[in-house]
Write a structure and sequence with these properties.
The protein is of the alpha/beta class and 248 residues long.
Length: 248
């Protein structure tokens, strides 16, 4: 099967994230990603996957592949993207993370509504817990949980001054079993290599971390793949069978 470049933005929030704009609904995500020439997106709300199914269903027939995921906060307040091949693979992890969240309500945290929606952007309800809190799991434990459920673990926005592996730990543990390191739209991969000097064995990727529809696609990574699927991306991160992360 011939390989081709496929653009991906694997760090997109929905209106369920407490820091996500209320306008970033499923159909807006699909429309914006498609208009930007993106072939694969990852829906990664904070510590939950409650809107992932709605975005997957909204994308049917569009040609856009939607990977369900979560942006999980470790007890060290390091943010990690967990991406999965299916909702069935993700659900057990989501349930474990829900049990580990602080029992602080969204109302007590004085946050905006965390909106649960359907594929047609209809409001189904609101998530009751404050979703930005750190879990009781260490970084290593979160990576292990993601892998145990068949997912990919990517350290989020390593260049940021808060909630990144560098800001919270001061370094990237060379033995950490992470699958990739994400660079935010605030810098370039070349600049991140120069300033952070991550271990060479970790592939670097760059995604939008979009919290508003207009931010989708502001940073993307091209992969050389046979098809826009989870398994193909997994192989690309491991540089297997000709699949790879394309140089920016």
């Amino acid at each position: 099967m011939a390989l081709r470049r496929i653009r991906a933005d694997l760090h997109i929030h929905s209106c369920l994230s407490p820091c996500g704009d209320l306008s970033i609904y499923p159909r807006r995500i699909v429309e914006r990603a498609s208009a930007a020439g993106i072939g694969v997106v990852g829906v990664c709300d904070h510590n939950t996957a409650g809107n992932a199914a709605a975005v997957i269903n909204a994308a049917r027939g569009s040609g856009l592949t939607v990977l369900p995921g979560m942006e999980i906060a470790s007890e060290e307040e390091v943010h990690v993207l967990g991406l999965f091949p299916s909702l069935a693979a993700l659900r057990p992890l989501e349930e474990e993370i829900a049990r580990d969240l602080p029992r602080l309500s969204a109302k007590e945290a004085a946050r905006q509504d965390q909106v649960l929606v359907g594929e047609d952007d209809e409001v189904l309800g609101f998530h009751p817990l404050h979703l930005l809190g750190a879990t009781r799991r260490t970084l290593s434990e979160i990576v292990e949980l993601i892998h145990r459920r068949g997912g990919l673990a990517i350290a989020a926005h390593i260049d940021r001054e808060a909630f990144s592996i560098v800001s919270q730990l001061g370094f990237i543990p060379p033995g950490l079993a992470i699958d990739a390191l994400e660079v935010s739209p605030l810098t370039t991969i070349a600049r991140a290599r120069e300033t952070i000097r991550p271990p060479a064995r970790f592939p670097l990727v760059r995604f939008s971390d979009a919290h508003r529809p207009e931010e989708i696609g502001r940073a993307t990574t091209d992969f050389l793949l046979a098809a826009p699927t989870f398994e193909e991306i997994r192989m690309a991160l491991k540089a297997e069978r000709g699949r790879r992360v394309c140089r920016p």
